[in-house]
Specification:
The protein has 193 residues and is α/β, with parallel strands linked by helices. Helices cover 42% and strands 22% of the residues. It has a single domain, classed as Rossmann fold, CATH 3.40.50. An 8-stranded mixed sheet has the order 1-8-7-2-6-5-3-4.
Amino acid sequence: MSDCLFIPFRFIDSLEHKQHILLFYEEPEYARLMEFRFIKNGLQRGERCIYATEEDSAFIVLKLLSYGIPLYYFQTGKLRVIQIRNECQGREQMLKKCKKDMDAILYGLVPPYRIVSRIVPDVNTIEGMSVELELEKETQNCFESLGGSLMCPYNISKIESQKRSRWLEELRGSHHITIYLPAEGHGGVYCQS
């Protein structure tokens, strides 16, 4: 891995080409600023945007509005917030549900676009993390056929702990760019070499 830029927010502001971005963070509200800026920049460039999360969608809409994203984008369908619920038990059920959620996210989406999402809400288990990693690898393998940029956020403390260092390495290998946002507010941007 090699350094691209040292300031994550400047990188997000300078993003011109579609990228598969991995966002590691420690403080959820600080990470949300990065996610919202990614979305806001996309909207200003005429891109359609989707924010998919396990959190309540109405709560996220209010947060986006208070961040300064105009209601117009919601009213015109240029920005959608989708709530993902994944209460499935078992690997195969989880994979099936996640692929169905991915289809719902991409349905009718016209390029260029930006998506903020992690498709498996609970990566605190070996099963959840392994499904998420499989889907990240599939996404990276077919990325050229996608019509936009993706940001995949991960709270480092919530990633399954027994294999955490291995999971982190595999996640980095399945993305073009890794952004690290520690709680103290610095961080970095790293490109796959």
